[in-house]
Amino acid sequence: MLERVNQAMEHIEGRLDRPVDVAELARIAATSEYHLRRMFSALAGMPLSEYIRRRRLTVAGSEVLAGRESLLDIAVRYGYGSGEAFARAFRAMHGVGPGEARRTGTALVSQPRLSFRLTVEGNSSMRYRVVERPNFTVVGFKARVPLVHSGPNQAIIDFIRGLERPVLRQLEKLAGQEPRGIVAVCDDLDPSRAEGTELDYYQGVVASAAAAAAAPEGTAVLPVPAGTWAVFTTSGPAPEAIQVLWRDVFTQWFPSNPYRGRPGPEILRTSPFTDHTEMEAELWLPVEREEG
Questions:
Q1: Structure pTM?
Q2: Phi, psi (degrees; rounded to nearest 5) at 121
């Protein structure tokens, strides 16, 4: 898998002065566009579109300093419709405008070319299972929150604190399917997975459609179609153990297994230990087998 992703990275390098078709990158990587975007974001720590932009501005920066062509010619070559648009993007990355950079020969920011390799730690194993599930329903209280990659998500914390305990206990009685109990559900995430992009967050339960009809007032319903799910378990301090699990799923499990992510909600069930400083967690991700 990573070898094919690296071939897609080579394709990007050959097209920095032309439009890059993400669908073609996905074909080269032998996966779906959806999974490629998610995989790249997890591996590189930035959206694919941001990487392409930064690589273009890195190469454009070297041409600005070389001084052989006009700034407008460079701007047009790298996809900017005007010198002003190029100058804004150039300053946002390099901290200086292209004209000033050319006059002063100042040092510019460089985005290195990326390539990926799988590192096998060998001192731990990932606990997972793959299950087929018929369609089900998520019912719960819903909020639109920003995505946070590291540390507590204050928007989610504040949202949960605002929910009344008796209503949550009433909602929990509707849970009749795995994963059981109150779960956290994330849906409608931006494909880039960029820090700060928004998602739908549910604090709710997995239930049948019939049970969902008896949900408390103010809840939202999310129908989920039948499909395949990869279920990962971990334990440790919260929220660090969960964030490490997310990282390991995309940097170790997906590259080593014949599956890719597919659109759908992501479900997390947590059970705090007695002292509430650590927890056991079960993460459900929608997946499909890679073709071929």
A1: 0.79
A2: -70, -45
Q: Per residue in 114-147, pLDDT tens?
A: 988 765 554 445 689 999 999 999 999 999 999 9
Question: SS in 3 state form for the chain?
Answer: CHHHHHHHHHHHHCCCCCCCCHHHHHHHCCCCHHHHHHHHHHHHCCCHHHHHHHHHHHHHHHHHHHCCCCHHHHHHHCCCCCHHHHHHHHHHHHCCCHHHHHHHCCCCCCCCCCCCCCCCCCCCCCEEEEEEECCEEEEEEEEEEECCCCCCCHHHHHHHHCCCHHHHHHHHCCCCCCCCCCEEEEECCCCCCCCCCEEEEEEEEEECHHHHCCCCCCCEEEEECCEEEEEEEEEEECCHHHHHHHHHHHHHHHHHCCEEECCCCEEEEEEECCCCCEEEEEEEEEEEECCC
Model confidence at 182: pLDDT above 50: yes
Query: What's the token pair of residue 267?
Result: 């479900």
What b-and-e string marks burial along 2-40, b requiring 16 or more CB atoms within 10 Å of the CB? beebbebbebbeeebeeebebeebbbbbbbbbebbbbbb
For residue 126, the tally of other CB atoms under 10 A from its CB is: 14
> pLDDT, tens digit, for every residue of 233-246?
988 887 788 888 88
Q: Which token pair is 251? A: 């940097």
198-207 and 227-237 strand pairing? unpaired
Q: Answer left, alpha or beta for residue 95, where phi above 0 means left and psi between -120 and 50 means alpha.
A: left
Closest CA to 234 of 224, 225, 244: 244
